[in-house]
């Protein structure tokens, strides 16, 4: 501790003031500045320092109650409620909460607020910068997702508040931060050192922020520094220095640094080769864990029990990172995290500490996490907290930092696992868990502010130099989509696999946990048994408990509920702390008791116990004795009859100790009063919920755009969402934020409490749509926009098909089949190929294309049983057709705006995995008109008011010939229609410079509705083209086949502009994490199958052999077929690849200088033994760029043909978004 504190942690010469509230966790403010220096910033010259359940005032004898009654407090509260500041080039109004309303408004110099100017004062030691470059994270991947849109947006808001010009580099067009409202200039270009250098040369910023774009931004910053770019252009790194970043990322240097200050680290050795890794493991002793330097989300890490396992793991890891750390395994210890903030004056606070439900061995991104920690003793808590502060100070962090520990559950032994000297996934979670805006504060610190000079954004009356206290508990649970991928193990370990996460707030662990489980997937009732998590034997069950998978929590439920396992037995099998398991036992006991009551006989006490333990109405209906007839509605009716409704509480950072005007809310049954009054009657906007494959950051952009438009139109807004990675769950975006479930029950509760004016269900993706009809059917509820009955008609295949027939809109032949014979008969009737889709499988997880009867038989077998209870929907699959996307907004059945994008890939690749081109450069005016006519018919038939999206197949008309002028050359068939915002809406909005969501909200409200405008009329004269390409996370999903098909597999997207489609497409590909142009002189491996278009395969071979590349094939037959198309026959070679021998395969790849793989096979392989599967898998395992679609390959070759220097890492000139839009005007 520093000199201001005694050994007990109490500030010297300070009189303690007793504290009434019992809080879950408290900390102590560490400040190297004298406490008296804080007086001028703090309310009524009072300084709060929290520890051991007491609050200390820096002025002895000052009364807390007297302080709260001071005139200055009343003035500050009034100012906080009335003030605000505009930021961004479009005058978007930022949150009042983030702008320092004065504690003492009379202070005009050295204080917080200048009342005359309405501006935030400057810090005493302001960093002199006028223009700052903020580096984004790029496309969303496993390990680096939407949390960086949130943190980057916060950073930009902080910079704009300080009147600093902001330049943003981020090719992720779906993000909120790439909207007009925030940065002054946006570059949709690759986040690479070379492209950053080009932007720096052009924009000449004097500062750069590297901490808000994840590992990608950090790595770029380190590289720029090594290249001398930052020094050459006099660019200051704001916040944590590059040297500190290097120390924290280089595993060996980091370990040495910690040892120098007496902080224990796991025994480890940094290595650069496989042989050195094996030697290190022999010295340390097995088991070991491998960790990669400069990697995100544990990429390349894993546990090795044997030399053989280590050889394979280290070889793969070193193909992904230049250095790895071989470390002694501490699997089974507790994993604890601390989020720490430090300023340049050495003030240091720990904002949040978190504890993993799972013991060490599972990546924290794949673990259930609770905040604050629940099982640590006071001594353990403060030991780790003190160590975290010591580490952050020694490393010289300026901003925000995350420290992760392993703690021996049987002793006080601990060691540091790693430190992230940047904003991270955990930072976003900690921000939402505490209400402390870590990214905003970190950005301000980077500009020179100290913590005492910044305010607490929630109370608006105290400083940021404090540690939050929580009178609630939050639980984070990851979301996995592993079932979507063949050959992928469900085991979870040290390398992250989850695609999203949820955060639930409650006042007991039981309440918080059950909320979180339901948030992960609406089909989960809570802590209950899943049908497919019931092993036949206890031996199998014990194995599932011992070996962690994405379903382990449900195996625990089965063990406790069905098998009678005790908490102690499960603890021995899993290593999960007994405290958590005993809480789960409480839930099991409550379930048992509920079975003793019927819906009618349940007592008020029993109902209260169930609701306080987080049981939903639907869950209770399945547990009561009359469950055969009980429903969610009957339980809700009984609950309200008993007078049991949820209470609304505030997240105020200080557990109610200071009045706070915060709008950050949650519901709980563990309370007796509401913290707010309900007079706004605001519009409820339903967010997207958890990020998952098929629903990601694009819907957060839609939700935020909706709220901003509503506020601009003068309406109060209520946002409901539970995703901590999102901008929509930032409390400065809406009038009221409910961090809560998007279930029918909770939405009804909040709607009724708020006496809402209406609810918007069309901007949050599919999740809100699923409850639209039930909300509509509830008395007193007003669903805004398209009638939910029409939404339901579009979702119902039979009704939708019937309506299309009535309005003369074509669709592929389809039928719902209930027997194997019916299925075979339909396939013979329409002809192969056919698309097989079991109707009872969510997310199309068993969709397949059958090219012949044998394949159909196999796929029907995979779809379990075909029966009246489990029908299979079969559709005629149209080969070699084009697919078009149309996004539109209608008003009372009339289209207002629309955009038509064309897919690069043939129809048959899921639209979420397709590359989109806008404007559609190859489509004729007749095609554009035909698609617009379909949109007009659909809008009118479904009486659409709001956004909608359709996918349309464009196929050659078999009846047409070149001499026939009466028959149209193409047929258009609708394959899907969603009466809501789509994932491509941010893309078309930003490319056309028309906010489709803003138009949709005005249409729905019937207020300021714009006149219809044909955005596509002059699209070919825009002067630019944009392409959107998918971002995959194949490397994370060991065994997954990198194959494009009817199921969506991408985790994110990027989009870039160009003067033509070739420029735009190449820049977009370079913006994805795995792609790079192979250097001339290297090798390219080519694969294909019987269905591949040989003209495209030959085009690929011809180009690369003509450009001084060696083209390899893995079999003689392929060589013979391609020899004639090679521009240089000697450059085409046959090479045998031993795909199953990872050791020799890695050596072979290195010796061949293999830098690119093109695999254009179209048949989905049946097993891992397929050579095309093995080729694709080898590419992603060794981080070799892969092209796996023939149309994409053809466009890529066209794009590369226009590049004069294929060795250049910046082949396309750099232009800002604004420059492209200006060229259009």
Automatic annotation (TrEMBL):
Domain MGS-like: 1075-1225
A GO MF label: carbamoyl-phosphate synthase (glutamine-hydrolyzing) activity
Keyword match Manganese: yes
Involved pathway(s): Amino-acid biosynthesis; L-arginine biosynthesis; carbamoyl phosphate from bicarbonate: step 1/1
Catalytic activity, EC: 6.3.4.16, 6.3.5.5
SUPFAM superfamilies: Carbamoyl phosphate synthetase, large subunit connection domain, Glutathione synthetase ATP-binding domain-like, PreATP-grasp domain
Gene Ontology BP annotations: L-arginine biosynthetic process; pyrimidine nucleotide biosynthetic process
UniProtKB keywords: Amino-acid biosynthesis, Arginine biosynthesis, ATP-binding, Ligase, Magnesium, Manganese, Metal-binding, Nucleotide-binding, Pyrimidine biosynthesis, Repeat
GO cellular component terms listed in the entry, alphabetical order: cytoplasm
Function: Small subunit of the glutamine-dependent carbamoyl phosphate synthetase (CPSase). CPSase catalyzes the formation of carbamoyl phosphate from the ammonia moiety of glutamine, carbonate, and phosphate donated by ATP, constituting the first step of the biosynthetic pathway leading to pyrimidine nucleotides.
Protein name: Carbamoyl phosphate synthase arginine-specific large chain
């Amino acid at each position: 501790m520093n000199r201001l504190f005694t050994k007990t942690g109490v500030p010297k010469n300070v009189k303690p003031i007793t504290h009434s509230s019992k809080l879950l966790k408290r900390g102590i403010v560490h400040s190297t500045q004298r406490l008296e220096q804080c007086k001028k910033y703090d309310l009524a010259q009072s300084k709060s320092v929290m520890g051991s359940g007491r609050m200390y005032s820096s002025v002895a004898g000052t009364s807390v109650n007297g302080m709260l009654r001071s005139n200055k407090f009343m003035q500050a509260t009034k100012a906080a409620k009335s003030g605000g500041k505009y930021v961004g080039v479009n005058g978007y109004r930022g949150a009042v909460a983030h702008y320092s309303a004065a504690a003492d408004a009379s202070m005009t110099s050295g204080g917080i607020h200048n009342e005359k100017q309405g501006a935030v004062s400057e810090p005493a030691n302001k960093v002199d910068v006028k223009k700052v470059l903020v580096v984004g994270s790029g496309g969303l991947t496993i390990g680096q997702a939407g949390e960086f849109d949130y943190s980057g947006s916060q950073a930009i808001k902080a910079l704009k508040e300080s009147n600093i010009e902001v330049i943003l580099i981020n090719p992720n067009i779906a993000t909120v931060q790439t909207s007009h409202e925030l940065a002054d200039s946006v570059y949709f270009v690759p986040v690479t050192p070379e492209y950053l250098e080009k932007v720096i040369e052009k924009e000449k910023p004097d500062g750069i922020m590297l901490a808000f774009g994840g590992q990608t931004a950090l790595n770029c910053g380190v590289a720029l520094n090594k290249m001398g770019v930052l020094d050459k252009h006099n660019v200051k790194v704001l916040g944590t220095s590059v040297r500190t970043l290097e120390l924290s990322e280089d595993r060996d240097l980091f370990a040495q640094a910690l040892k120098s200050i007496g902080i224990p680290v796991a025994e480890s050795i940094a290595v650069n080769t496989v042989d050195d890794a094996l030697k290190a493991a022999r010295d340390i002793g097995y088991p070991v864990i491998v960790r990669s330097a400069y990697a995100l989300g544990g990429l390349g890490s894993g546990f090795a029990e044997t030399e053989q396992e280590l050889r394979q793991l280290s070889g793969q890891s070193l193909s992904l990172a230049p250095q790895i750390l071989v470390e002694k395994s501490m699997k089974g210890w507790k994993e604890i995290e601390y989020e720490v903030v430090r300023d340049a004056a050495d003030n240091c606070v720990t904002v949040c500490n978190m504890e993993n439900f799972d013991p060490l061995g599972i990546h924290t991104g794949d673990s259930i996490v609770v905040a604050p920690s629940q099982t640590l003793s006071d001594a353990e808590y403060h030991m780790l907290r003190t160590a975290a502060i010591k580490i952050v100070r020694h490393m010289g962090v300026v901003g925000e930092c995350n420290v992760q520990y392993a703690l021996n559950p049987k002793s006080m032994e601990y060691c540091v696992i790693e430190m992230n000297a940047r904003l991270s996934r955990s930072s976003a979670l900690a921000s939402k868990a505490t209400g402390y805006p870590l990214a905003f504060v970190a950005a301000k610190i980077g500009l020179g502010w100290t913590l005492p000079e910044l305010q607490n954004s929630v109370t608006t009356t105290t400083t940021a130099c404090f540690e939050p206290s929580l009178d609630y508990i939050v639980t984070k649970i990851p979301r996995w989509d592993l079932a979507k991928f063949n050959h992928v193990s469900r085991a979870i370990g040290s390398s992250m696999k989850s695609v999203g996460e949820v955060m639930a707030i409650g006042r007991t662990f039981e309440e918080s946990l059950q909320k979180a489980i339901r948030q992960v997937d609406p089909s989960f009732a809570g802590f209950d048994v899943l049908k497919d998590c019931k092993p036949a034997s206890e031996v199998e069950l014990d194995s599932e408990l011992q070996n962690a998978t994405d379903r382990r929590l449900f195996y625990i439920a089965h063990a406790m509920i069905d098998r009678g396992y005790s908490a102690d037995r499960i603890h021995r099998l899993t290593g999960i702390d007994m405290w958590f398991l005993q809480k789960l036992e409480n839930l099991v006991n409550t379930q048992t008791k509920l079975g003793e009551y019927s819906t009618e006989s349940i007592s008020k006490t029993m109902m209260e116990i169930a609701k306080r333990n987080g049981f939903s109405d639907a869950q209770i209906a399945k547990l009561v004795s009359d469950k055969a007839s009980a429903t969610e509605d009957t339980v809700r009716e009984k609950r309200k009859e008993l007078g049991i409704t949820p209470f609304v509480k505030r997240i105020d950072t200080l557990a109610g100790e200071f009045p706070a005007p915060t709008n950050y809310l949650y519901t709980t049954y563990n309370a007796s009063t509401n913290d707010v009054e309900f007079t706004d009657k605001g519009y409820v906007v339903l967010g997207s919920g958890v990020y998952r494959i098929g629903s990601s950051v694009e819907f957060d952009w839609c939700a935020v755009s909706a709220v901003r438009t509503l506020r601009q139109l003068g309406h109060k807004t209520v946002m409901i969402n539970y995703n901590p990675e999102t901008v929509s769950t930032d409390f400065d975006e809406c009038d009221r934020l409910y961090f809560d479930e998007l279930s029918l029950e909770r939405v009804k509760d909040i709607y009724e409490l708020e006496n809402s004016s209406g609810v918007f269900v069309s901007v949050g993706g599919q999740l809100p749509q699923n409850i639209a009809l039930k909300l509509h059917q509830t008395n007193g509820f007003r669903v805004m926009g398209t009638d939910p009955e029409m939404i339901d008609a579009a979702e119902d295949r039979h009704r939708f098909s019937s309506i299309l027939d009535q309005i003369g809109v074509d669709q592929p032949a389809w039928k719902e089949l209930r027997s194997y014979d019916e299925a075979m008969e339909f396939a013979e009737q329409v002809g192969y190929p056919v698309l097989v889709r079991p109707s009872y499988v969510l997310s199309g997880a068993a969709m397949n294309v059958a090219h012949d009867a044998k394949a159909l038989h196999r796929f029907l077998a995979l779809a379990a049983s075909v029966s009246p209870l489990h029908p299979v929907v079969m559709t005629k699959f149209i080969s070699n057709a084009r697919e078009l996307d149309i996004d539109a907004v209608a008003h009372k059945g009339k289209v207002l705006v629309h955009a038509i994008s064309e897919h690069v890939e043939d129809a048959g690749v899921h639209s979420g995995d397709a590359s989109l081109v806008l404007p559609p450069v190859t489509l004729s005016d007749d095609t554009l008109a035909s698609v617009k006519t379909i949109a007009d018919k659909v809008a009118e038939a479904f009486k659409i008011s709001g956004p909608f999206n359709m996918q349309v197949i464009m196929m050659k008309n078999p009846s047409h010939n070149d001499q026939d002028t009466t028959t149209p050359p193409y047929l258009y068939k609708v394959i899907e229609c969603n009466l809501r915002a789509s994932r491509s809406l941010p893309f078309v909005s930003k490319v056309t410079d028309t906010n489709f969501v803003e138009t949709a909200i005005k249409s729905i409200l019937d207020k300021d509705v714009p006149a219809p405008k044909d955005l596509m009329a002059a699209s070919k004269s825009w002067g630019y083209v944009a392409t959107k390409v998918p971002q995959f996370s194949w490397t994370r999903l060991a065994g997954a086949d990198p194959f494009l098909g009817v199921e969506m597999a991408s985790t994110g997207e990027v989009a870039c502009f160009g003067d033509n489609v070739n420029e735009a497409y190449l820049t977009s590909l370079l913006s994805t994490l795995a792609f790079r142009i192979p250097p001339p002189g290297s090798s390219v491996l080519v694969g294909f199958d019987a269905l591949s278009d040989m003209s495209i395969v030959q085009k690929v071979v011809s180009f690369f052999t003509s450009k001084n590349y060696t083209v390899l094939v893995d079999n003689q037959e392929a060589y013979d077929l391609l020899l004639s198309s090679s521009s240089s026959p000697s450059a085409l070679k046959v090479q045998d690849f031993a795909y199953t021998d990872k050791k020799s395969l890695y050596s072979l790849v290195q010796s061949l200088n293999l830098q690119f793989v093109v695999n254009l096979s179209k048949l989905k392989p049946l097993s891992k033994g397929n050579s095309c599967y093995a080729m694709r898998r080898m590419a992603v395992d060794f981080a070799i760029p892969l092209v796996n679609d023939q149309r994409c390959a053809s466009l890529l070759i066209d794009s590369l043909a226009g590049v004069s220097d294929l060795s250049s890492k910046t082949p396309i000139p750099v232009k800002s978004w604004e420059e492209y839009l200006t060229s259009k005007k």
